Amino acid sequence: FACSEDRNQLKAVYQACFPDDPMSFWDYELDTLMLPDNILVYRENGRILSTVQILSEQLTLQGELYTVQYIYAAATLPEAQGRGLMGMLLREAHKLARERGQWYSVLITQNDSLFDFYARFGYRDCGKLSLLQGDNAAVNGNVRIAEENDVSAMLELYRAKQKNVLSVFRTHDSMGLQRKMYGD
């Protein structure tokens, strides 16, 4: 597992593998989610070459809750790819999930080219996510960055839209954390 002294190395791996994500995102991520038992790392000579975060989440579908392992920030430095490091980390993560009573493991790939890679470890394509770019002019100037007092309304809208869709179970606190984590 990673420890607090690994923070800068983790950020270097994330920056190499997710160059479009701002470092402020990873600072917040590590400040919030870096717990003693949720970031697996592979090291050689003290250097982190590969890492996965193994977060515990609850998914909901039609009122049922499922505790799952969410594989997040799976990353291997480009010069270390192709050596089986991610496979070792995923197998260890799956072992931990079983020990924790999490019978499902979920991940969202950075791009579609990774589907075949993750299929080797039992993952399958369960659907696509889409990001829509809105036209700010179409909303007559009512778009603004979410504030703390918006969280209850955001949660209500989220739950209404996710009623019959497998989705992450959100509470007021977790929705507030999402607002803080993603900022703008």
Characterise the protein shown here:
There is one protein chain. The chain has six helices and five strands. It is α+β, with helices and mostly antiparallel strands. Strands 1, 2, 3, 4 and 5 form a five-stranded mixed beta sheet that branches. Strand 3 (64-76), helix 3 (85-99) and strand 4 (105-107) form a beta-alpha-beta unit. The radius of gyration is 18 Å and the shape is globular. The mean pLDDT is 86.
List the keywords.
alpha+beta, globular, 6 helices, 184 residues, 5-stranded mixed β-sheet
Protein topology:
Blueprint: H1 7-17, H2 23-33, E1 39-44, E2 47-61, E3 64-76, H3 85-99, E4 105-107, H4 115-119, H5 151-161, E5 167-168, H6 172-182
Parallel strand pairs: 3-4
Antiparallel strand pairs: 1-2, 2-3, 2-5
Helix pairs in contact: 1-2, 5-6
Helices and strands: which structural class?
A: alpha+beta
**Global geometry:** globular
Helix fraction, binned, reads: 25-40%
Tally of separate helices? 6
Instruction: Report the count of strand segments.
Output: 5
Largest sheet: 5 strands, mixed
Beta content comes to 15-25%
Mean pLDDT: 86
Uncertain runs: none
N- to C-terminal separation? 31 Å
Order of helices and strands: HHEEEHEHHEH
Radius of gyration: 18 Å
